[in-house]
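FAQ

Q: What does a record look like?
A: Structure on top, sequence underneath. For example:
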């Protein structure tokens, strides 16, 4: 039996006594793109934070390759974290550093590479996201879409097994958003990495997702799981149907 790369078991998300989402369980195989979708306030970003250790679940566990991340000791968790890459909503680049310096930071901290080797890796990662020649630019000197791509290059610096994206299309125009979706698909195909993407953007959901979870704020549960095209054809409940057809969009 193949062990899933990600295994979330009966995780409950809460803030104090307020329960955001109950009993979240799912598995994800290596090389797949999972979209976590739902309306505002349903707990999408909270679930992502629980999966990468920025918050602890009230109950339940998260496993990677069969090993509990939730119950791991500090050293084990740090080792596991180095196999993750995270792209935050705003890119979260250091404004006082060039793009090259941003991407190089984790390589300087966590590898034994020398300066020349780090520069080569940085150049490769920036080229992968279409930013060759922008190594010496500062975040304020480039567009929002380019900042997202630079954030992606930084997230890929340590060749992660799993990439987590929190609303990657937020603040982007439709064309730039589509280019980012296309880039995600290319990277999945070329790197074989697994992606977990939080988004409410329909175009992105239908373009990139192999699989999707719908977090239902009204029931505080995962009320749907599957390929979004299949969920659109056979919605399991009214909330999913309304979410996937809002704005009259059909895919």
């Amino acid at each position: 039996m193949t062990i899933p790369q990600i295994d979330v078991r009966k995780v409950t998300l809460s803030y104090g006594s307020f329960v955001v989402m109950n009993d979240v369980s799912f598995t994800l195989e290596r090389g797949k793109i999972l979209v976590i979708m739902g309306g505002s306030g349903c707990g999408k970003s909270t679930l992502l934070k629980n999966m990468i250790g920025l918050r602890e679940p009230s109950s339940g566990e998260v496993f990677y390759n069969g090993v509990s991340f939730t119950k791991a000791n500090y050293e084990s968790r740090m080792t596991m974290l180095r196999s993750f890459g995270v792209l935050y909503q705003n890119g979260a680049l250091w404004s006082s550093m060039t793009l090259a310096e941003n991407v190089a930071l984790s390589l300087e901290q966590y590898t034994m590479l020398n300066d020349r080797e780090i520069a080569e890796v940085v150049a490769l990662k920036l080229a992968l996201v279409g930013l060759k020649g922008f190594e010496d630019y500062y975040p304020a000197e480039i567009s929002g879409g380019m900042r997202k791509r630079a954030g992606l290059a930084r997230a890929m610096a340590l060749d992660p097994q799993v990439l987590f994206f929190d609303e990657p299309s937020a603040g982007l125009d439709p064309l730039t958003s589509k280019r980012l979706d296309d880039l995600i698909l290319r990277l999945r195909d070329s790197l074989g990495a697994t992606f977990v993407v939080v988004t409410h953007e329909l175009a992105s959901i239908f373009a990139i997702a192999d699989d999707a979870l719908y977090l239902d704020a009204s029931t505080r549960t995962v009320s749907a799981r599957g390929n979004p095209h299949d969920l659109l054809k056979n919605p399991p409940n009214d909330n999913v149907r309304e979410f996937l057809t809002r704005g009259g969009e059909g895919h």
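Q: Is there anything notable about this one?
A: The longest strand covers residues 18-28.
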